[in-house]
Amino acid sequence: MSDAARRVPIEPQSVDAPLTRSAVFLVLSVADTAEAYATTRAALASVADVQKNVAFRDLGASLSCTVAIGSRIWDSVTGLARPTELHEFRRVQGARHTAIATPGDILLHIRSDRRDLCFELERQLLGLFGTAVTVVDETVGFRYFDARDLLGFVDGTANPVGQALPDSTLVGDEDEHVAGGSYVVVQKYVHPLAAWQSLSTEQQEAIMGRTKADNVELDDAATGQKSHKTLATIEDEAGEHDILRDNMPFGSPGSGEFGTYFIGYARYLSVIERMLQRMFVGDPAGLHDRLLDFSTPLTGTVFFAPSAALLGTLADG
After folding, report:
1. Do the beta carbons of residue 199 and residue 151 sit within 8 Å?
2. Which of 79, 154, 179, 235 is buried most deeply by CB count within 10 Å?
3. Are the C-beta atoms of residues 188 and 24 closer than 8 Å to each other?
4. Closest to 57 in 3D by CA, of 124, 114, 142, 127
5. pLDDT tens, residue by residue, 85-141
6. How many contiguous H segments (helices) and E segments (strands) does the chain have?
7. β-bridge partners, 66
8. What's the distance, Cα to Cα, between the start and end of the chain in Å?
9. Domain coverage including residue 171
10. pLDDT higher than 70, residue 3
11. CA 89 to CA 299: how far, in whole Å?
12. Are 129 and 202 in contact (CB under 8 A)?
């Protein structure tokens, strides 16, 4: 067992749940009253029990729900010491593109191989919250072929595996009062699919930094704009810093909506923030991620997913 594993003895939530065929990304806003905070606290403490009741209908369907809490309500709802890096999403302004910040107090990331189980768990959980919350955004994602996005490329290739997964996603003794928790960033992107499809496969591959058919990593050009693959990779004197992406496509051909829901879990929020800075501002500044010419963010929110043990303590008030 590594030192990092020994430093996180607390049971985490299902951050590392397997990639499923269906998911719901539910962002809620909590009313600013003592009664709403109390209701929210009780609902959060009950999520695990409700999940078990729904999952029992098909134990092989990999139903899970990760709960995360935003900065605005952390103190009022949890009454616990704040995670060191937790704050609201910081807008990133580039010369051509902007990562916007949008409201959100609670994130429910529901995953399963069955859409009906996702639906039922969401329905029951919203019943627990009742009028204490309003839905800010509800996005239903689906697995597309062999884990591809709607742009046609395999998504999540750089995700950590093995011991690197908890090392990259779970807070350790650097912030031991929230050990076993994880920072979560969500962004909902939409794509002008016709414009993207007007590019040649070679142009698309140069933007992404990988081949489209077989997902082989490409070398960056010696000069000019770097690929998405390179700009989304964070390295420093300590080495490469990974995050876990559980992105999913969403959309409706009938309404012309085609998108990717980005969700990143990280041990350090600063890693995702550096990634967004490189993408939107550029490295060097002015040479932004060309994928953003075909991907517009509609949302941007930060949460913290406490350990399962910490969530359970909320029932004590």
Report:
1. no
2. 179
3. no
4. 114
5. 999 999 999 999 999 999 999 999 999 999 999 999 999 999 999 999 999 999 999
6. 10, 14
7. 109
8. 35
9. 3-316
10. no
11. 10
12. no
| Both structure tokens of 124 | 């029951």
- How confident is the model over 247-301, as pLDDT tens digits? 999 999 999 999 999 999 999 999 999 999 999 999 999 999 999 999 999 999 9
Q: How many CB atoms lie within 10 A of CB 3?
A: 9
Backbone angles phi and psi of 158, in degrees to 5: -85, 5
Strand-pairing partners, residue 188, are 261
**Which CA distances in Å does 213 have to 148, 219, 250?**
11, 16, 21
| pTM of the predicted structure, to 2 decimals | 0.94
Distances (CA, A) of 29 to 4, 33, 76, 101, 193: 34, 12, 14, 14, 31
Helix (H, G, I), strand (E, B) or coil at 99: strand
Number of domains into which the chain is organized = 1
- Report strand pairing: 106-112 vs 22-30: antiparallel
CA 201 to chain centre: 28
